[in-house]
From TrEMBL:
One of its GO terms (molecular function) is tRNA (uracil(54)-C5)-methyltransferase activity, S-adenosyl methionine-dependent. The active site is at residue 445. Belongs to the class I-like SAM-binding methyltransferase superfamily. RNA M5U methyltransferase family. It holds the Pfam family tRNA_U5-meth_tr. PANTHER family: TRNA (URACIL-5-)-METHYLTRANSFERASE, TRNA (URACIL-5-)-METHYLTRANSFERASE HOMOLOG B. S-adenosyl-L-methionine binds at residues 317, 367, 417. The keyword Methyltransferase applies. This is tRNA (uracil(54)-C(5))-methyltransferase. InterPro entries: SAM-dependent_MTases_sf (IPR029063), TRM2_met (IPR045850), TRM2B_chor (IPR025823), U5_MeTrfase_fam (IPR010280).
């Protein structure tokens, strides 16, 4: 069992042989966590963080196994991999994230100065000052069991059982993958653990094999669990058909439904059970439809007093209460200088556009996942919103066609919330090309890498007046992990 974090735990973790290597550079987290452990955070450390930029490694947190880590339990190793800040008090976690966002914004400022896009900060600013305010990070109202969506893999457990449901440690390349149950993870709600446990029991009873390596055969793959704040639960089981006939697959579907409705899995009280047959790692509803085997087709969630329908493959922020803080923040930033049109780029189920709709004349939203666009249209009428238009397709295709004719009296605000891949440069070019777009609110859960490229494109010498950052607000959506959302306002 995980005990509450103490500072000496941090030192224990650091001396236990786990080397923290993050997207921010291997030394970054080590330096920062050590520093915090000694209560010695000073602006000098920002200097070290800045130095760490030059040898940054991109990508998610990875952990390198160093001698001595065998002393940790499998559960602790998993917790260190998935929720690497779990040993720290929440206050310390927020402090770390604030430093991290500061570092990212310094990198952005450096990049703009280096490329001659913006002027050097004035003389009274030191190298570690930003030329625009970075507001204090907004905490998540909920810190434990906050996830509304979890995906559990199937692989070989510590005891060698290949029908183990949980999270991976190790790598395929290192041939040392071990699947550990996520029961002890601080961000995991009870219901998700329950469905994962039942699914494990079900596949252990099933006569067919799990699918671990696609080319080696087997069928049962990961399960995704979605829950909402009133306790409704949706489970989506992914299944590799290999060479089974439709009739043979039907037998397994029936067994799955029976287990979760009349068998031991009934304890999960699933409101929806979906099944997706796919031979690809990730597969859209268009490529391989989500088959509703039992219950309701959608899950609903309430956000800031509005109701939202969510399809199995539609995006929804993973921490609903923190998402309310994020959307409230966007609303406040928008209110600062009201324009009459909002462009909601990468709109998912339409949450941002619908929340802002009462403040503007018109919302135009663009989203690539068709089911999410259907949800968004449904959500607008569910909330009596009539001034939103939802367009299905890639933003880089739709916006260049839309922008030349888009007119507005008071100006346009673009709210962009892309996935980790960032926005295509054609989206930025299109936004830059229309002078009516006066403000752009960029929301990113990964404000380095591709998003950094976008920041540069927004401020660089593309045709059209450049933007400049005016304020940034971090919002913690993922307690115990190193991630948070960063909202940056650009204006021109
Ligand atoms: C981080 S989510 C944000 C969704 C929404 N703003 C919200 O708060 O729920 C990113 C969304 O961008 C969509 N997306 C990804 N690539 C896209 C593209 N090229 N054009 C339009 N939408 C895209 C994804 O399907 C996803 O719904």
């Amino acid at each position: 069992m995980i005990i509450m974090p103490m500072l000496h735990d941090v030192q224990r973790v650091l001396s236990s042989g786990w080397k923290y290597v993050s997207h921010c550079g291997g030394s970054l987290w080590r330096i920062t966590i050590c520093t915090l452990a000694k209560n010695e955070v000073t602006s000098g450390h920002v200097q070290k963080l800045r130095k760490g930029l030059s040898n940054r490694k991109k990508g998610n947190i990875i952990h390198q196994k160093l001698p001595g880590n065998e002393k940790l339990s499998w559960e602790d190793r998993l917790a260190d991999a998935v929720t690497p800040l779990w040993h720290l008090s929440y206050g310390k976690q927020l402090h770390l994230k604030q430093l991290q966002q500061h570092r990212i914004l310094l990198e952005m400022s450096d990049l703009l100065v280096k490329d001659g896009i913006s002027r050097r900060p004035s003389l009274h600013l030191s190298r570690d000052d930003l030329s625009f305010p970075l507001m204090p990070i907004k905490p998540s109202p909920v810190r434990y069991g906050y996830r509304n969506k979890s995906t559990f893999s199937v692989n070989v457990g510590v005891d060698g059982n290949p029908k183990t449901v949980g999270f991976y440690l190790g790598s395929g390349k290192g041939k040392n993958i071990v699947c550990i149950s996520g029961n002890h993870l601080l961000n995991m709600p009870v219901k998700h653990k329950m469905v994962a446990k039942c699914y494990e029991e079900f596949i252990r009873l099933s006569p067919v094999d799990p699918c671990i390596l696609f080319h080696e055969g087997g069928h049962w793959r990961e399960v995704t669990v979605r829950t909402n704040s009133v306790g409704n639960t949706m489970a989506i089981v992914h299944f590799h058909p290999q060479k089974l006939t439709e009739m043979e697959i039907c037998v397994h579907k029936r067994a799955l439904v029976d287990y979760f409705t009349n068998g031991p899995g009934a304890v999960c009280a699933l409101d929806s059970l979906y099944f997706q047959e796919t031979s690809m790692t990730r597969c859209s509803n268009e490529d391989s439809p989500y088959q509703l085997l039992h219950g309701k087709s959608h899950i609903y969630e309430e956000v800031l007093g509005r109701k939202f329908r969510i399809s199995p493959d539609a995006f929804f922020q993973v921490n609903t209460e923190a998402a309310e803080v994020l959307y409230h923040t966007v609303g406040e930033l928008y209110l600062d200088r009201g324009q009459d049109t909002v462009l909601d780029v990468c709109s998912g189920t339409g949450v941002i556009g619908i929340i802002l709709s009462s403040k503007v004349k018109r919302v135009i939203a663009i989203e690539v996942v068709e089911q999410a666009v259907k949800d968004a249209k449904h959500n607008a009428s569910l909330n009596d919103v009539f001034n939103c238009e939802f367009l299905a397709g890639k933003a880089e295709v739709i916006l260049p066609q839309l922008m030349p004719s888009l007119k507005s009296e008071l100006g346009v605000t673009a709210v962009v919330n892309p996935s980790r891949a960032g926005l295509h440069y054609r989206v930025i070019r299109a936004l830059r090309s229309n002078p009516a777009v006066r403000r752009l609110i960029y929301i990113s859960c990964k404000p380095w890498g591709e998003a950094m490229r976008n920041f540069k494109e927004l401020c660089c010498s593309f045709p059209g007046e450049p933007f400049r950052p005016t304020v940034a607000v971090p919002v913690d959506m993922f307690p115990h992990t190193t991630h948070c959302e960063l909202v940056i306002v650009f204006e021109r």
